[in-house]
């Protein structure tokens, strides 16, 4: 069982062509779907057939009901707390020219409760794994819950992975502070920009190696340039990105993490885990939206 802790929100996907015309109209295709880094990863994990539990918080509103129902229908076990009088988080995702920009209202996700998280992880069966989205750590309201997840996993002797989540909040928190929070983690995943914040400039391989001073294994995702894995044994492994038509990068990193974890938690080595991550990441960018079809 993989326990995923983090955010469950509504994504408002705005797919536009060309630049946004500030102060005027820009044509776009707009759709509403489930989102949130943790929830997306959980959905992709379920799509591989892996048992997964999402630990999150939503508001007592229709959006929260819909988001939980979607995940349960996808095969995700939901340990999701409903918070009265609070709105479910929502994110406007601007998709264009192979990039995406997110405008975020985290809503109920900021109120993720440490006690709720601890209780969920305490029930984890032997051999389970914790995957923590970095977002709870990067926001003051949810930080106690993120730290509680790591503490509970340590007490249960679970393996742990953390996704660095987002460059801007990482800079705000500070690299040294974040790396201290996740010290000793089994696997740290970050994209190229996040690796730059946490490890400084250099090649992805060099950055991953430097990060192993803080965590046991580091994975740097480079999008179309593939990904690298470094361990404390000093060996660096890499995988090329699969050549597929790019429709939407939203959720690709979450899918990559799910593929990698499905393999690694099943006993596969780093190279096989990278290959599995690359395959699921390619499936994600080949469709619009952050979740499996």
In short, what is this structure?
With 293 residues, the protein is of the alpha/beta class.
Task: Characterise the protein shown here.
The structure is a single chain. With 293 residues, this protein is of the alpha/beta class. The chain has a single domain (2-8, 36-80, 110-285), classed as UDP-N-acetylmuramoyl-L-alanine:D-glutamate ligase (3-Layer(aba) Sandwich), CATH 3.40.1190. The chain has helices at 37-47, 62-73, 114-122, 135-138, 143-155, 167-173, 175-181, 192-199, 204-211, 252-264, 270-285; strands at 2-5, 9-16, 28-35, 52-59, 77-83, 88-96, 99-107, 129-133, 159-163, 187-191, 217-221, 227-231, 236-239. Strands 5-4-1-8-9-10-11-12-13 form a 9-stranded mixed beta sheet, sandwiched between helices. The chain is globular.
Keywords:
single chain, 293 residues, alpha/beta, UDP-N-acetylmuramoyl-L-alanine:D-glutamate ligase, nine-stranded mixed β-sheet, four-stranded mixed β-sheet, 11 helices, 37% helix
Helix content: 25-40%
According to CATH, what is the topology? UDP-N-acetylmuramoyl-L-alanine:D-glutamate ligase
Q: Give the uncertain stretches in residue-range form.
A: none
Which oligomerization state do the chains in this entry correspond to?
Answer: single chain
Kindly provide the radius of gyration, computed on alpha-carbon positions and rounded to a whole number of angstroms: 18 Å
What is the top-level CATH class?
A: Alpha Beta
* Mean pLDDT over the full residue set: 93
CATH superfamily: Ribokinase
- Which CATH architecture? 3-Layer(aba) Sandwich
**Helix and strand succession?**
EEEHEHEEEHEHHEHHEHHEEEHH
Separation, N- and C-terminal Cα atoms: 22 Å
Q: Largest sheet, order of strands side by side?
A: 5-4-1-8-9-10-11-12-13
Structural class: alpha/beta
Number of domains: 1
